[in-house]
Structures are given as C-alpha cells and as structure tokens.
Amino acid sequence: MERRRGRMAHLMCGAAISVLALPCAAWAQGAATGGGEIEGIIVTAQKRAENLQDVPLSIQALGEEKIERLNAKDFVDVARHLPSVSIRHIVPGVGNIFIRGISSGPDGGASGSLPSVGVYLDEQPVTTIQGTLDIQMFDIARVEALAGPQGTLYGASSQSGTLRIITNKPEPGVFRGRLETEGNATFKGGLGYSLAGMLNVPLAERVTLRAVAWNRLDAGYIDNVHATRFYRTSGVTIDNAALADKDFNDVEVSGARAALRVDLDDNWTVTPGFMIQKTEADGNGYQILGRDLETERFFRDHRDDTYWQAALTIQGKVGDLDVTYAGAYLNRKFNTHFDYSDYSYFYDTLFGAGALWVNDAGTPIDPSQTTHSVSRYTRDSHEIRVATPQEHRLRAVGGLFYQEQRHELQSQYSIKGLGSAISVSGWPNTQWLTDQQRTDRDYAAFGEISFDVLPRLTLTAGGRLFEAKQHLVGFFGLRSSERNCTGPTIYGDGPCTNVNRRAKGDGFSPRFNATWKIDDDRMVYVTYSEGFRPGGINRAPVSAPYEPDYLKNYEAGWKTTWADGRVRFNGAVFSDKWDDFQLFVQTTANIAEVRNVGQARVRGLETDFAVQLMDGLTVSGAASFLDAELLENYCGRIDANGNPIVTCASPIALEGSRLPFSAKFKGSLSVRYEWTMNEADMFVEATGAHQGSNWSSLRISDRIRQGISPGFETLDLSAGAAWDTWRLSVYARNVFDSRGELARLTSCPVAVCSRIYQVPIRPRNVGIKLGYEF
C-alpha cells in the first residue's frame, strides 16, 4: 500500500512540473482532437466581476460544478484541493487556515494573535479568532483563494491571503428549485446522510428570494475504547466503561440561508441576507498516536457551535461611479464540554501535583479535570467603496472600512470535590477560571489606482491606512491569581478584575503592480505588496504587549490560455519576508502568550492548469512548492529595546527551521470524461491529492516529542448521470483509506503531556447522491 501511495505522489508531482510543456503539446494535437474550450471562471477578487484570466493575482478558484464533483461538505474537503491553502482542523467549526506557509504554529486563543488569513462570505468578513466558520458547501457559486498579502482591499486579517466563499445570488424573473439527498458509509465507521434544498422565487416584478436549507449527519469513525487511569498521589482509579463506544464522534449540521434581491430601479439593488447554522459534535476526532482510530476519553466531550449572520449589500450608480455598501452582524456561540484529565494525570504522575488538589479536609481527591466553556463572539462590519468605470484608461477604487469584534469567553476548569479554600472565589469546584471580554476595533481607508500606460501595459498603485485598537478585561487564573486583582469585577462573573489592558497601533500597507497583456490570451505581471497583523495584549500583568507583524511580498506571475482555449496554464513565483512575526507560546507558568520572535522568509511556486484533450476529456491540476524557514534563532527573550534576542545557548527554535503547517509540496490532479448515452449526460472522474509532511510547532522540544506529521495521498472516484431534471451519482472518497493527518496535538505542554493525538482525515467513504431540479 505504501509503495502504491508513493508512486501516486511521484506521478502527481511529475504532472505538476510537466505542465510547462503542456501548451506546446496542446498546439501539436489541437487540430486533430477538436476539443472544446476550457470554461472560464468569473471572480470578484478585485471588488469587481472579472474573468480569472484577466486578474493579475495568484488566485486558485473552485467553481460550483467542481465543488459538487468533489462531493465537498465543508471547507476541510475544499482545502485539500487548494494547494496554496493549508488548514489545522481539530474539531468541527474550529479550523485555522494558512496560505503560503505563513504560520507560526497553533493559535486561536482568546487573547492570541488575530488570524493571518481573512475569510469572507460574499462581501462580508467572517474571520473569527477561534477559526473559520464551517460553512455548508451547498449552492455555493465558487471559492476563491487569493494568495499573498491582500491588505489593500481586505485589511488586517489578510496578511498572507484571503479566502472568499461566494454564494449563488437570487436570479430575477426565474422560478426554479433543487433538491438533493445523499446517503454514505464510512469504512470502520457509521452511516451518514445529507438533505439539502434550494428555491429561487420571484416575489414581485423587482423582488426575488433565494432560500437554501440543509441537514447533514457525518458518521463517527473514532472508537472510545475501555480504559482505566490511576492517580498515584490519591490512589484513585478512574474507569471510562460508561462512555466507551464505537464511532462516537458523530457530527450533525443543520442550517438555512436566504437572500432577497430588491431592484429599486435600473441602477440600484438592495440585497439583505441571513444565514444560520448549528453544529453539534459528540466525542472528538482524535486518535492516540500509533493506534488506528482509537482514543481513551474518561469524561464527556461535546460541542455545540451555533452562529447566525445578518448582512446587507447595496449596489448602485451615482453618475458613472459604482457605489457599494456592505455591512453585516455576525453572532457565534460555542458551548463546549471537554475531558481535560490528561492534564491532571500527567502533572500528578510527573510532579505529584495531586497533592495540591485536595478537599476541605485536606485529603487528596480524584484530580480529574473537565472543562466547560461558553464562548460568545460578535462581529459588526461596515464598508463603503466607490469605483470609477473599468473601461476608462485611468480607473480607481477606494473606500472606508470599520469593524468591531467582541469575544466573550467564560471557561471553567473543574475538579469535583475541590476544597473551597483553593477553588476560585464564588466558583465551587473550579481550579481555574477565565472570564474575560476582548474587543478589537479596526478603522481603515483604502484605495487603488490603475493606469493604462500603453494599451497592453497597466500600472497599479494602492494602499490601506489603518488603525487598530484592542481592549482585554476580566479575570483569569487560580484562586491565588486573585492576589493580582486591581479592583472589583468590571466585566463578567469572575471574583474580581486582574486584567484590564489596552493596546493600539496604526500603519500603512502598500501595493504596486505592473501588468503586461502580451495578447488577448496571455499576460504576465509583477507585484510588490505588504500585509499586516495588528499587535495586541498579553493578559498576564508581567507580560508586555506584542507588536504588529508585517509580511513583504515580491511576486511575478502569469495567466495564459493556449490552443484556441483548450489549455489554461497559470502560475506565480514569490518571495515573502515576515518581520517580527507573532508566536503563540506557553510560558514556564503554563500561561499562553504571544511574542514577536524575529524574521522568517517563504519562497515558492504556485501553478494550476487545465487541458481539454478531446471532446469530453479534461485533465486539470494545481500544485504549490514552498520553502518556508526561520531566518534567525528564537531565544524567547527580548532586549531592553524590545528586540528579540537571537543569540543564546539553548534556542527555543533554530535558524533554518521549517515553519509549522508548511508542506514543501502540495498538489492535486483530476481526470474527467463526459459523454452522452440514451439522452443522459454521463461522467466518470478521478481526483488525486498529495499533502506533504509538516510540523505542528516551531519549538525544538515540541518537534522532538511530537514528531512530524507525515505526508499522505488520497484518491477520490465518482461517476454519474444527469437527465433533464434528475441527477444520480456515486462516489468513493479516500479510496486507499489513507490516515492522512489534519493536526497533531496534546492536551497541555508537550514536555508534560506525553500522550500525542492525531486528527486523521475521514477514512474511506462511499456514497450515493440523488438530485432533482425543477
């Protein structure tokens, strides 16, 4: 099996490299094959609708048909086929997205760095510090991955790129609908299903409604096996017999989305929208390192993630200017129960910490910890922009942006029977409490100007002037942490206030581009751009705030079409310099904080291609090659001027270390054949994907103990038929049943919690889909 997977990886790698020869080959065979043109993709990456081939950016886009052919349910399924994108996925709804290897390791803490990748749903940002929204991939027009800094048009959380999920919009004057049902089975797991529907209804001459609803069950495949655990200090043995179960990590997702298009006149359109989704996850998707689809959990793991968003887009014209307003309010709530007994077990086993966890009589007790967290996140965003006509020789787009993000977190770490003298005041049985509110406000003015110096040579310059403010207030810590309180409770239900800190910063993010259209089918471009991420607050009073970090990007790319439209070949080479980047670390006091660690650089190549070999036969693929490394030692300390110290006897991370979650190679290759038989449109398709090995941490000690996540390959097969109103298809995903890894983690610092968990991709999954359109 491993030999077969290795051959597959080499084949895909060779295919990605060999695309350099595809245009010539296609020219040679074009006249003989008579193949049709590759279908174009319309994108809105530059805040206007354009053919992907006319946009001087590195964009990897998946259209609606491609998303459906991949049988993608959520963004994890999509990310596998976007080579510039990687994702660290722990539990449903919590995924950290990275583009071009710009990552310093796990993040997403309540007081940690903002994301380095911006995520947009249509015109509205939906980036959250806890991870991207797990949006159902039904009735989605396309997904756009914009690689490289997009700070000019998309702001602070688009330091290394932007991910845009574009929904299908209401279609005026058209009544139609779609129903789709699916059943599937997971190898070594359970049965799942999906039900989804869409309805597009004209309500009046100028009013159209498009509504979508879905319900999905993703079957579990991790077994919680029977086990016991002995605490040496108290002599207590715990047993998970009551929770032992097969396939215990079921996930159910249900939701709805609606958009109303109101054409006020021929020039102005108002589109209010609303979306709601609820995800309930039992168990978790971890397996213990070295054990196939098995874990040992002693207390209930459960997650309820519910979010809703109300959005409004207004588009119109004032004279010959295009005016757009986009606003939204996002509300997300997590309610999470988590087994934290690993923490108790390893601290007791290694350090005898069970002696600290006693009852009111001073007797050591069962120290098993569980956590209950309630996290409320809101985001209020507003953008207004104005654009001149795109057909003019001199054209511009500019606007103003404001957003407020508020994250309220109450997280309780409980030990049953804990003595009142060591419990957080007012919180019985609570060993640790976090009850705090974080507020981030961003203000920006942005703009770009393009000028056609010659009919085929265009120069573009733009920038974003920004200001960011942050406030963190509340309580965190142990009973002993109450000694650090500065006054009574200002926010939340904590015993007092021991963090009430503010930070702010401002700056300017520029972008310059030169584009030469060689002819109507080919262009080349060069770009210099900068991305930024604001600094912020470390909640510990003794910890200094962290500073902004910046990414400088030098890029050259090409967009080409050959052989009368039968071959598309795009790509880009780039070199990125990451200055004073922010790293999320655990201190010796086991408190998470962010530090600016120094310099890193990423060099790479991105490419994608599609070839219509003959009528009905299409080959397409994409790949990325990355060299991402630390440029200097990280010693974990700063000098008197606040600069990182890079010379020390025992660095935490070494110069030359590869950045976390940055695979050297990632690629995908698809072959699809379509034909007509007995009035049915038939197809068969095979898609292979390769993910290279990657580290989960930058720290030397973590790498030694955790090891590296190995590379893996997947192969997906599908076939189907479509008639006038009916569609039927069957599929098999992960045919070779790969145990590809989405993340590697521990429940506490790796030096203490030696039990390593892996998050495997879904095992072999087969299904059948039936759809009806009317």
Mean of all residue-level pLDDT scores: 89
CATH classification, class level: Mainly Beta
What is the distance, rounded to the nearest whole angstrom, between the alpha carbons of the first and last residues?
A: 45 Å
Q: What amount of the residues lies in strands?
A: over 45%
CATH topology: Maltoporin, Chain A
Please report the total strand number as a whole number. Answer: 40
Write the layout of secondary structure elements.
Layout: H1 2-18, H2 22-33, E1 42-43, E2 50-51, E3 59-63, H3 64-69, H4 75-79, E4 85-91, E5 94-99, E6 117-121, E7 124-125, E8 140-147, H5 151-154, E9 161-167, E10 176-186, E11 191-204, E12 207-218, E13 223-224, E14 228-230, E15 237-239, E16 251-263, E17 269-282, E18 287-288, E19 294-295, E20 302-318, E21 321-339, H6 341-351, E22 370-387, E23 394-414, E24 430-454, E25 457-477, E26 499-519, E27 522-533, E28 549-562, E29 567-579, E30 582-586, E31 592-596, E32 599-614, E33 617-630, E34 665-677, E35 680-691, H7 700-706, E36 712-722, E37 726-733, E38 741-745, E39 757-760, E40 765-773
Structure description:
This protein has one domain (2-44, 221-773): TonB-dependent receptor, beta-barrel domain (Maltoporin, Chain A, Beta Barrel). Strand 22 (370-387) and strand 23 form a beta hairpin. It has a 22-stranded antiparallel beta barrel. Strands 3-8-9-6-7 form a 5-stranded mixed β-sheet. It has a 3-stranded antiparallel β-sheet with strand order 18-39-38, with no helix packed on it. Residues 1-34 have low confidence and may be disordered. It is built from 7 helices and 40 strands.
